[in-house]
Write a structure and sequence with these properties.
Elements (H helix, E strand, L loop, with lengths): L2 E3 L18 E2 L14 E2 L9 H5 L5 E3 L9 H11 L3 H7 L23 E5 L3 H13 L3 E6 L6 H5 L6 H4 L1 H6 L7 E5 L3 H6 L6 E4 L5 E2 L12 E3 H8 L14 E5 L3 H11 L2 H4 L6 H9 L4 E5 L11 H8 L5 E5 L3 H8 L15 E2 L12 E5 L4 E5 L6 E4 L6 E4 L2 E4 L3 E2 L17 E2 L2 E2 L5 E3 L2 H4 L7 H18 L5 H15 L1
Helix pairs in contact: 4-16, 9-10
The structure holds iron/sulfur cluster.
């Protein structure tokens, strides 16, 4: 029986290169790579060797025969990807689909080329994939900088504590932190990082997208209305973030992406279930004494195009301790769920109870998460603090009474001193990672491409940036001033 990839897939494709029969797709270079929720193993081609399971940095791959209970669904999910593919057509647009690709050699600088000194700002996934590429494929010396006193970025402060397999990728990154060609500078702000530019051939900024996207509705800044990052950082022990008041029985989360699902899951989890995880002790204590019984996920889209991924919804639906309910306020919701084909996103909701929720009443006993589709937030209500959210619906607006609102409508990058910034996309304008008009300066990750894709998507992104940097180095496009100054200093030291 074949192996199957499961919920925690980070899609960084570490498994693809070790598969002896090329049966894990979409692979880097194929049209779908970076666009699917995860990677999939073709059960018809897999020879059961287990190499991919050994290579997976997040323990997402198992023999299909070992999967029982809710994870068993991934046997079908893997197979479905191939059942829906016209393999011959796919092979014509992606030449390595089920065939050997032309050999790819790691990029190296010419042997007579002096080692580069590169500063990487940010210790999250994009920064660490860039570090990995530079250290493994060149003889560059790397100065790795982070403004926080602990390395890890999004893996440490963004991944939910009840996803230990996903957090495990941090161990893969951590092995580079004591590499002999790496200097680690923690607690170094962007200002000090900019000073590094004069002492390095190139600087890669991989600082992520840290700002919350605004909802643009009245009341969103009322006390009790929080950006998602404040909640996620709080339960992960981010040093900059204050505690979150959990005295409300109902919390509305605006948004239904994976971050919104994470927040809903943690706020409704039994504290004992989180006790053995990496959750911040203060957050665990607050959850123990908190009153939250219901989290409402407010989604503009319908169930067929919801922003969450199927693996995250499956994980939520599988929890025995928390109810998951669909608010049946709009006939389109039932139509989408009942009419969904197997494999469609909406089909995952078929077994869930549907309920016309009375939002003026307190939540029922027990803990539950309510999915309210086709509903936009119109205002955060309250005079001096949050009292609820006014949301749209086909029968007119409704006020959902709630003591806390979490705004999980997405992230955007923040401007970096001295670098151009595109306010519309919240990114630094760049071409393949090269910052426009700033030779020797590069970006990787969400500050480069916007907040899309999971951890693994940063691997290809960082690789493209490092490739551009190496190309520029070989072509003599790095600022000559820096390189000459360093070489002169080196020669003087030798004299
Ligand atoms: Fe490929 Fe072996 Fe993994 Fe099957 S078990 S997908 S053959 S690496």
């Amino acid at each position: 029986m074949a192996f199957a990839i499961t919920q925690t897939c980070c899609a960084d494709a570490s498994c693809v290169s070790v598969c002896p029969v090329n049966c894990i797709h979409p692979a880097p270079g194929e049209p779908d790579f970076g666009r699917t929720e995860m990677l999939y193993i073709d059960p018809g081609t897999c020879i059961d060797c287990g190499a991919c399971a050994d290579a997976c940095p997040v323990d997402a791959i198992f023999p299909a025969g070992d999967l029982t209970g809710p994870p068993r669904a991934y046997v079908e999910i893997n197979a479905e990807y191939y059942a829906g593919q016209d393999v011959l057509a796919q092979a014509s647009v992606a030449p390595n689909f089920h065939r050997w690709a032309p050999p790819a050699f790691p990029r190296v600088l010419p042997s007579d080329f002096a080692p580069l000194d590169v500063a990487v700002v940010g210790t999250g996934p994009a920064g660490m994939y860039a570090v990995e590429d530079l250290l493994l494929h060149t003889d560059s010396r790397v100065t790795l900088v982070d403004r926080l006193p602990v390395a890890g970025g999004l893996v440490r402060y963004g991944v939910a504590p009840d996803h230990p397999s996903t957090k495990k990728i941090g161990e893969t990154f951590a092995r580079f932190l004591d590499h002999p060609r790496l200097k680690l500078r923690l607690g170094t702000g962007i200002g000090a990082a900019r000073d590094l530019a004069g002492r390095h051939d190139a600087v890669i900024y991989a600082v992520g997208a840290t700002e919350a996207r605004r909802l643009g509705i009245p009341g969103e800044d009322l006390p009790g209305s929080l950006p998602a990052a404040a909640v996620v950082g709080w339960y992960n022990g981010h040093p900059d973030l204050a505690s979150v008041d959990l005295s409300a029985e109902r919390v509305v989360v605006v948004g239904a992406g994976n971050v919104a699902l994470d927040i809903a899951r943690i706020l409704t989890a039994g504290p004992d279930a989180l006790a053995g995880t990496e959750i911040a002790p203060a957050a665990l204590a607050a959850l123990r004494s908190g009153k939250v019984r219901e989290v409402v996920l407010l989604a503009r889209r319908g169930p067929e195009t919801a922003a969450y991924t199927r693996p995250e919804l499956l994980a939520l639906a599988a929890r025995p301790d928390v109810g998951l309910v669909v608010d049946a306020h709009d006939a389109r919701i039932a139509a989408a769920i009942d009419g969904a084909e197997p494999g469609d996103k909406a089909a995952l909701l078929r077994e869930l109870p549907r309920e016309a929720v009375d939002w003026s009443s307190p939540p029922p006993d027990g803990r539950r998460i309510v999915l309210r589709f086709h509903s936009s937030p119109l205002a955060v209500c309250g005079d001096t603090e949050v009292r609820g959210v006014r949301a749209s619906g086909p029968a007119g607006d409704v006020e959902i009474t709630a003591g806390r609102v979490v705004r999980a409508a997405g992230f955007r990058g923040a401007p970096l001193p001295g670098l151009p910034f595109d306010d519309d996309s919240g990114t630094v304008p760049n071409t393949a990672g090269r910052v426009e008009g700033r030779p020797g300066t590069y970006v990787a990750g969400w500050i480069k491409r916007g907040p899309s894709g999971g951890i693994g998507a940063n691997k290809a992104c960082a690789r493209e940036t490092v490739g551009a940097l190496l190309e520029d180095a070989v072509a003599g496009r790095l600022p000559a001033r820096r390189r000459r100054a360093r070489l002169t200093a080196k020669l003087l030291r030798r004299a």
